[in-house]
Amino acid sequence: MKHLIDIKSLTNDEILEITELARYYEEHVPKGTQKKKKAGSTALLFFENSTRTRFSFEMASKKLGFSAFNFDAQKSSILKGEGFFDTLNNLNAIGCDIAIIRHSKEGFIEELSKKEYDWGLSLVNAGEGQSSHPTQALLDFYTLQKHLKTVEGKKITIVGDIIHSRVAKSNIELLTRFGAHVVCCSPSYFEDWTLTNAKYEPVLKDALNDADAVMGLRIQKERIETRVPYAQYIEDYQIKESNLPKKAILMHPGPVNRNVEIEGALLDSKRGKIITEQARNGVFVRMAVLDLIYEGTKR
Ligand code: CP
Questions:
Q1: Is the peptide bond preceding residue 255 cis, with omega within 30 degrees of 0?
Q2: What is the pLDDT of residue 298?
Q3: pLDDT tens per residue, range 140-168
Q4: 171 pocket-lining for ligand 1 (C-beta < 6 Å)
Q5: Taking a C-beta distance cutoff of 8 angstroms, is the pair 131, 102 a contact?
Q6: What is the pLDDT of residue 115?
Q7: pLDDT below 50 — which residues of the chain?
Q8: Is 81 exposed, middle or buried (0-12, 13-18, 19+ CB in 10 A)?
Q9: Which of 29, 1, 5, 33 is nearest to 292 (CA)?
Q10: Does any ligand 1 atom lie closer than 6 A to the CB of residue 53?
Q11: Ligand 1 atom with minimal separation from the 53 CA
């Protein structure tokens, strides 16, 4: 792997290699840093807000022994008019090995990766517009494997703002490739008809029926111009202890808007704990991604 562009660009074997290496890191480096430190460096370029992805990439970098540098767009020369490609070109010259990028422009990482250049710099997609968030899907897959053993034949229901969710799109791509039956549940204004791999079920009770895992999604206010009927949404689509099937595990990529997509009491209960476990698993999965890229492309 030179870059991590999206789930489509990974083979099933590469996905399994990432989750196997993540398991190794979870077992061997649960705390602190690994003994044989890597000499590489990562640059974290986040042009949209983030807590989990940015911190876990930074944590993953440090646990591997990398130096991690946070790029502050507001203090950078981008504000003096320097373009993004030229910025990366200079980070490469300075000696960064991996640029971890979150950006609102869809297809941006792929576009950058196709430019003719003589870089050692690798690019990692840390969330791109509404279209892809590959490391979130990888850590969700890792979490599902831990709890369900396999996703093959399992019913995985995704509830909420599907159309604006890059997490839903990357998860549908990955999980259906491994044989999961993905059901999307949302009001019509959050539906995405282009997602033909998943079944659409607008009634929450039917979507949740017999689910093995339920993923809640946040309403992405920052991407919505029209008014969302919150009270009606909560009445029809909120996940609660009373409607979550007993056998189902509860997941959410975060950030959660408490008492909107998931009832606060359910979040605080034992069943809500897998959501913070997802954030923790993200560290090990991102260690695996950075390691495979670095070892595969070491100068
Ligand atoms: N799941 C996720 O991407 O969270 P952040 O936006 O906090 O990184």
A1: yes
A2: 61
A3: 999 999 999 999 999 999 999 999 999 99
A4: no
A5: no
A6: 83
A7: 299
A8: exposed
A9: 1
A10: yes
A11: 8
Q: Which helix (H) or strand (E) is 85 found in, with range?
A: helix 84-94
What are the CA-CA distances from residue 232 to residues 55, 187, 200, 228, 260 (Å)? 34, 10, 20, 9, 11
CA distance 191 to 188: 5
Sign of CA dihedral 253, 142, 23, 4: negative
Supply the residue whose CA is at minimum distance from atom 6 of ligand 1.
50
Express each pLDDT in 203-247 by its tens digit. 999 999 999 999 999 998 888 888 889 999 999 999 999 999 999
CB 223 within 8 A of CB 195: no
Q: Would the CB of 125 count as within 6 Å of ligand 1? A: no
Residue closest to 5 by CA, chosen among 135, 105, 197, 92? 135
The residue count for the chain? 299
| Confidence (pTM) | 0.96
- The burial of 243, by beta-carbon neighbours within 10 Å (0-12 exposed, 13-18 middle, 19 or more buried), is given as middle
